[in-house]
Design a protein that fits this description.
This protein is an alpha+beta fold. The protein is built from 9 helices and 4 strands; from the N terminus they run H-H-E-H-E-H-E-H-E-H-H-H-H. The chain has 2 domains: 182 residues, no CATH class; 85 residues, 2-Layer Sandwich (Alpha-Beta Plaits), CATH 3.30.70.3040.
Length: 299
């Protein structure tokens, strides 16, 4: 009795698996049929998707590269701190080091600075007029202004100098780049869903009678919906595969820029960009199809 029950359960599971495979096969065939019926319109849709995703991918990759360059250049920017004649050098270094966002401090004692200066300029034997100097680097270029203000408030400090305008310009460029990427992402997502929505609407119109017959036969909404969602995902995937090509070409020029500015390269960055384009293409197109189906078929 137990053996018969076990065999019955196995047959039942096998039957379910076979049924699922048949359903998946039919859904896949319906998807291919829908793509085939679109004809030459497929070229326009995929080309448009590729153009949108290419624009987004190139701007996204450029934004990341620009951010890396700005960050690296920001590390090179230094705050020159000139101490008072009677200042204690060790105390000054200790206080500056305790300021948040300070990364490194290069100490130049006034005697060393004077010795080096006299090697380059022939001067009479006069008293050293140079102060003890600290060259301070910050962890983030965005913090340079705040760190400079904090240093100015120290009692041992006579004066503080740094490339204020350059630091502000670098920060502005970085902010504009990130803002542009977000705007392009929103616009690209909207255009992607808009195009797919109109495409699926045309497909639904051409298959309306067929869909009505399937409904009368009691076919589930899932079976009707899924081929159209997969069709939208197919357009997104195809557009992504084309868009990857110009993004990889752009990557070569970015690599040269990194070498010129001595910026460390992260080989995973291009993979993240490609994954983002793929996600945007497939998911946004599938979502556009889903929205169109709910709107025009009420399922």
């Amino acid at each position: 009795m137990n053996n018969d029950s076990i065999n019955s359960n196995r047959r039942s599971k096998a039957s379910i698996i076979v049924t699922d495979i048949i359903i998946f096969y039919r859904v896949l065939m319906e998807t291919i049929k829908g793509i085939t019926q679109a004809g030459m319109m497929n070229i326009f849709i995929i080309g448009t998707m590729a153009a949108i995703l290419t624009i987004f991918g190139c701007i996204f990759r450029t934004s990341i590269a620009l951010g890396s360059v700005v960050k690296e250049l920001g590390k090179v920017l230094e705050i020159s701190v000139y101490l008072k004649p009677d200042a204690n050098l060790k105390d000054a270094v200790y206080e500056v080091r305790n300021i948040p966002s300070v990364d490194r401090i290069n100490v130049i004692p006034k005697q060393k600075a004077w010795t080096n200066f006299r090697k380059t300029v022939d001067l009479p034997n006069i008293e050293n007029p140079l102060p003890d100097t600290l060259h301070v680097r910050v962890k983030s270029q965005k913090d340079i202004k705040q760190v400079a203000k904090s240093i100015e408030g120290l009692k041992e400090v006579e004066d503080v100098k740094y490339a204020h305008e350059l630091a502000e310009k670098m920060r502005e460029v970085s902010d504009i780049s990130h803002t542009a990427t977000i705007i392009i992402l929103i616009v690209s997502g909207f255009l992607t869903m808009f195009i797919i929505n109109n495409t699926i609407q045309i497909v639904i119109a051409s298959k309306r009678k067929e869909i009505e017959i399937m409904r009368l036969m009691g076919v589930s909404d899932w079976y009707i919906r899924m081929p159209l969602v997969l069709q939208g995902a197919f357009y997104g995937l195809s557009g992504t595969l084309i868009a990857i090509i110009p993004v990889l070409i752009l990557q070569r020029y970015i690599d040269k820029t990194y070498e010129f500015f001595a910026v460390p390269q992260n080989p995973m960055t291009i993979n993240v960009v490609i994954a983002t384009i793929l996600f945007m293409g497939v998911v946004f197109c599938a979502c556009g199809s889903f929205v169109s189906i709910k709107k025009h078929l009420n399922i």
